[in-house]
Amino acid sequence: MPGGGRYPSVKRVIDEQGLHTVCIEARCPNIGECFGNGTATFLILGDVCTRNCRYCAVTSGVPALPDAGEPDRVAEAVRRLELVHAVITSVTRDDLPDGGASHFTAVIERIRELGCRCGIELLVPDFSGSMERSMDAIAARRPDVLNHNIEVAGPLYEALRPMGSYGASLRLLRHASSAGLRVKSGFMVGFGETMEDIRRTLDDLRMTGCEHVTIGQYLQSRRENYPVARYYTQEEFQQIAAAAGEAGFPVVQCGPLVRSSYHAAAHAAGCGRDAVQAR
């Protein structure tokens, strides 16, 4: 059971500020390590997603209206935790005209207004219906890293992400890269994809200008979720990491428990150098 190190103080700050984290809502297996080290990934725009991806542990349904005070509370939590690198993500909000982009920009502005001298990494949804407008607003605030997960290999989108679009996600990454942002993405394996599917997905991501890729093992976190087709061995993860290097990624995190914001601060600082990790 998680609880060592700074875990209690991180949990207390999150609870006192009335915030959500993807660490808790998505049942991340690394929560003990990350909270224990004093870090967390904030989940904004509530904890109810308008999508229903078949692998995700986050609750889906009809979300409440955005909380106008949430950006201030996130910034205060960043200040109190003395983060050197803050990772902000959200549920997907297809019900909002801008997909929630204005909430992301408000969080960036509040963090900087408090004088927090930390890197800011945004892990954004695909902003379906408002991609260019939403991404232009975010790019204008110059986050240090723009992350958007491709989530699964391309051929599995119809089965696993029926409300998503592989092509749209690639366009978002390309748009962010064209705006001069440092771009990151990631996906999970274990759904039944082939090595050729993985290589093609890596090539597609690299062609967008994406510099940093995270690849981890899918774990079935709820009984009703998509079943695990297979567990990859450590040697196979090494092979995937090598394929990512061959595709031209400067920064690769690849291993069973790797997730999109795992060790984000260290790897943001390591962008541009070989930082292959298998865990």
Describe the structure concisely:
It contains 11 helices and 10 strands.
Describe the structure.
The two termini are 20 Å apart. The chain has 11 helices and 10 strands. The protein has one domain (7-269): TIM Barrel. Helices cover 37% and strands 15% of the residues. Strands 1-2-5-6-7-8-9-10 form an 8-stranded mixed beta sheet. The chain has 279 residues and is of the alpha/beta class. It has helices spanning 7-16, 22-25, 31-36, 70-81, 101-113, 131-139, 157-160, 166-178, 195-207, 234-247, 264-269, and strands at residues 20-21, 41-44, 48-49, 59-60, 85-90, 119-123, 145-147, 183-189, 212-217, 251-254. Helix 4 packs across helix 5 (101-113), helix 5 runs parallel beside helix 6 and helix 9 (195-207) packs parallel to helix 10.
Coarse structural class: alpha/beta
The structural domain count equals 1
Give the CATH superfamily.
Answer: Aldolase class I
Largest sheet: 8 strands, mixed
- Which second-level CATH architecture applies? Alpha-Beta Barrel
Taken as a percent bin, the fraction of beta residues is 5-15%
- Shape, principal axes of CA atoms: globular
Q: Enumerate the spans where pLDDT stays under 50 for 5 or more consecutive residues.
A: 272-279
Q: Class in CATH?
A: Alpha Beta
Which strand order spans the largest sheet, edge to edge or round the barrel? 1-2-5-6-7-8-9-10
Question: How many runs of DSSP E, i.e. beta strands?
Answer: 10
